[in-house]
Write a structure and sequence with these properties.
The complex is a heterodimer of chains A (370) and B (389). With 370 residues, chain A is mostly helical. Helix content of chain A is 46%, strand content 11%. In chain A, strand 4 and strand 5 (134-136) form a beta hairpin. Chain A is rod-shaped. Chain B has helices at 5-8, 15-37, 39-42, 53-65, 68-78, 88-109, 118-121, 129-156, 159-167, 169-189, 207-233, 240-275, 284-309, 313-337, 353-374. Classes of the chains: A mainly alpha (370), B mainly alpha (389).
């Protein structure tokens, strides 16, 4: 995950992002989203938390969640590490802490400035409101649970026991109450001011002042100021955040940027792949055409060769036949001439025989044999 | 399954029919349980583990193994490898069935399956990789349906409709490759949003590339694997062209798979180098990673190459089966084994037997439908009334 590679993915994505995701083209620009101006947040100063679980009780009441198995006054459950469930939007966990006693930390949706759940949802069921809350609309939710995969804080939960209307369940930062001008249920019920509700910018200032004024009481870090691009819940701690169960290895990259490169590649593939594939098709088609042409040409040449050969052969045969014919004629003529000569000779001989004595016949016969 | 019960018109109690029947019956009961009692009744899914084997196997493995359709049709129609033409229809059919079953399986997995069209008709979450997957799978399923339709149309004797579809072949093939590139890679890109949950050896910005390349490997290997099974069980349905491909397909596709696997091995090493995650190789997860990369990538690349060089069809076929298993291992690793690696063992996921039951049910359904189709429609043979297109 080096910076240069992300930049590279950003470049790939840059051209396509406007088409694919419109306004979310943050990966390829220097733009940095600081959250909605004047948006509200909660500061959880864990050094003040006494683990009374009143926030859990208030949350249960205002959100009309089912009654818990053990009452909220039972503090024994604190020792067991719990997580949010579909019946509890928030839980308080006890951590070993130091010599001065155990520590407590409240866990709920952190309401990211650029939420992973909202980025991951394929029906836009999540909205980051300008007031600060990340709210969920069950009326469009398909129940794919990709938001639960995406959330780095492992907050969204699911009503697995519901066959017909399961919902994602998570803290709403009491968005309806905030719109009415009320405090979130947990903040209102907190007896120690471990939870303060206010504008995010003001709360960051308060947190910094607390760290500056009492540096021995606090770790010099405001959790949520930059984690995953920043969250609307901010935390202060007297112990390293890892020891109170909060991950410090999440990084500061907002979740949408993690997938921006891959999303940006989509229009590029759609645009260039058909060109490439058509080109390959054209090339293989052309190869076939050329091969066919060459084949036809080779065939024609072969045929022509064969023709020529056949003609030559025919000519030779004709010539031979002609010659044979000529020879035959010559022979016939010769024979005819010879026969004539012989006949003439015989006639002459007969005439001579008639004129001279018979013993002269024998030498005449010898001459003819020669 | 020696005898062909379907064409004989009356079912017989062959071992295949009995086993398939029992699985379908149990699957039917589990289906009723799932849709009346909810996910909790049949799965081990939890708030920490929202995705189980219905995503890890049915979706991720299913889509990868159905890649044979786009790989084969691209090879034959676009790259001009016409001598594998007879392999196209079986590959398109298994691709279509694969995707159809993936969509069926998703109905079990999502909480409100009747809302599956919502991303298209209600609100489009275009910032989500899952939206891209959904859009591409929906479109590609349609493309595969049209690509396969000539076989069904020949069976039904609808000549004019068939000739219209055939004119679209090249367009559909290009569309299919584009869509496959997008959603195969996007399935890997789904996990880009969770760097804090996926083990660093498996988490890399190259995940989309890895998923696409392994899909090509899976497609090539599945064509060999399926042709092996088809030649064994459906050879009586094949014409001369298909019977002749018994050896040429494993040799050609095996050679291609050897090359792609070798390339994949190289980009895996590049991924480890770029992320500089070498030190994790010395851990338990590292050992398992090495099993995946050496045992299921490097080894089959080598075996495919040897098999092709020696024209050893048996070796190529076993390697194809091993590679398919390797795809399962890879997808399980990313979705289940290396995912949530930071959680204590007590919070990790292991599938409920009923989840496995549903997955087996869906695979069986696919085999039964495949058998129904190849014993009726011209898939493994050319229809006598039509020329090869």
């Amino acid at each position: 995950m080096s910076l240069s590679r992300r930049k590279f993915l950003g470049w790939i994505g840059a051209a396509g992002m406007t088409a694919a995701a419109g306004r979310k083209a943050s990966a390829a620009t220097t733009h940095h989203f600081e959250g909605y101006p004047e948006s509200m947040a909660v500061l959880h100063d864990t050094t003040f938390c006494i683990g009374c679980r009143r926030c859990e009780g208030a949350c249960n009441t205002v959100n009309e969640l089912p009654a818990p198995e053990v009452p909220f006054t039972d503090l024994n459950v604190l020792e067991k590490q719990r997580r949010t469930t579909s019946k509890a939007y928030t839980v308080v966990n006890q951590k070993p802490g130091n010599a001065s006693g155990p520590l407590f930390v409240k866990n709920q949706c952190n309401h990211c400035l650029e939420p992973a759940c909202a980025s991951a949802c394929f029906v836009n069921a999540f909205t980051k409101t300008k007031e600060g809350a990340v709210v969920y609309d069950a009326s469009v939710c398909v129940g794919c649970r990709y938001c639960m995969i995406a959330c780095p804080f492992e907050i969204p939960t699911y009503e697995y026991d519901s066959a017909f209307s399961p919902r994602i369940m998570k803290c709403t930062m009491c968005h309806p109450r905030v719109l009415e001008g009320k405090l979130p249920g947990c903040v209102e019920s907190c007896p120690t001011e471990a939870l303060i509700f206010g504008k995010r910018d003001d709360l960051l200032n308060i947190a910094r002042q607390r760290i500056t004024r009492r540096p021995n009481n606090y770790v010099d870090h405001i959790y949520g100021e930059r984690e995953m691009g920043g969250t609307s819940w901010l935390y202060l701690s007297g112990m390293p955040f890892e020891t109170i169960g909060m991950r410090m290895d999440l990084g500061v990259t907002p979740a949408p940027e993690l997938t921006a490169g891959a999303l940006g590649a989509v229009p590029m593939v759609v645009g260039i792949w058909p060109v490439l594939l058509t080109g390959i098709y054209a090339m293989s088609k052309r190869k076939e055409k050329i091969a066919a042409e060459e084949k036809a040409q080779a065939l024609a040449t072969a045929l022509a060769d064969a023709d020529a050969q056949a003609t030559a052969k025919m000519d030779a045969a004709m010539e031979k036949a002609k010659q044979e014919k000529a020879t035959a004629i010559e022979k016939a003529v010769k024979e005819a001439l010879e026969a004539e000569a012989k006949a003439r000779a015989e006639i002459e001989a007969e005439a001579e025989a008639a004129a001279a004595a018979p013993p002269q016949e024998a030498p005449d016969e010898d001459d003819k044999d020669d | 399954m020696s005898e062909d019960t379907a064409t004989m018109g009356k079912p017989t109690l062959s071992p295949f029919n009995i086993v398939a029947g029992v699985i379908l019956l149990v699957g039917g009961i589990l289906t009723i349980l799932r849709f009346t009692q909810g996910l909790d009744a049949v799965t081990n899914l939890s708030d920490y583990n929202p995705w189980g084997i219905w995503i890890g196997f049915d979706l991720l493995v299913g889509v990868a193994l159905a890649a044979g359709g786009f790989v084969t049709s691209a090879a034959v129609y676009l790259f001009g490898m016409k001598h594998y033409h007879a392999a196209v229809r079986p590959a398109i059919l298994t691709g279509f069935l694969g995707y159809a079953l993936v969509v069926l399986a998703l109905h079990y997995d999502v909480g409100r399956p009747w809302r599956l069209p919502y991303p298209f008709i209600m609100q489009r979450g275009t910032t989500s990789l899952l939206f891209e997957v959904a859009a591409c799978v929906a479109l590609y399923l349609t493309v595969l349906f049209i690509e396969f339709s000539p076989a069904a149309l020949e069976w039904l004797g609808l000549k004019r409709a068939r000739s219209i579809v055939l004119k679209l072949t090249i367009l559909l093939t290009i569309f299919g490759v584009v869509l496959s590139t997008l959603h195969q890679s996007s399935l890997g890109a789904l996990f880009l949003i969770a760097p804090s949950k996926l083990h660093p050896l498996w988490y890399t910005p190259y995940l989309p590339v890895y998923f696409f390349v392994t899909a090509v490997i899976a497609g090539l290997s599945m064509v060999i694997f399926e042709s092996t099974l088809s030649h064994r069980f459906f050879s009586h349905k094949m014409d001369a062209a298909h019977l002749a491909e018994k050896d040429t397909v494993p040799l050609g596709f095996g050679k291609a798979a050897a090359f792609v696997l070798a390339g994949y091995f190289i980009i895996k090493v590049i991924g480890i180098s770029a992320g500089n995650t070498w030190h994790y190789l010395a851990t338990g997860y590292g050992a398992w990673y090495l099993v995946e990369v050496l045992g299921f990538v490097a080894l089959p690349a080598f075996l495919y190459a040897v098999g092709v060089r020696d024209k050893n069809i048996t070796l190529i076929r076993w390697t194809a089966a091993w590679t398919v298993l390797g795809i399962v291992v890879n997808r399980f690793n990313i979705c289940l084994v290396a995912f949530n690696w930071h959680l204590p063992a007590s919070e990790r996921y292991f599938p409920h037997w009923m989840e496995i039951g549903i997955s087996v049910f869906i695979v069986t359904l696919g085999i039964v439908i495949y058998r129904f189709i190849v014993t009726r429609m011209p898939v493994l043979y050319e229809h006598p009334d039509y020329d090869a297109h």
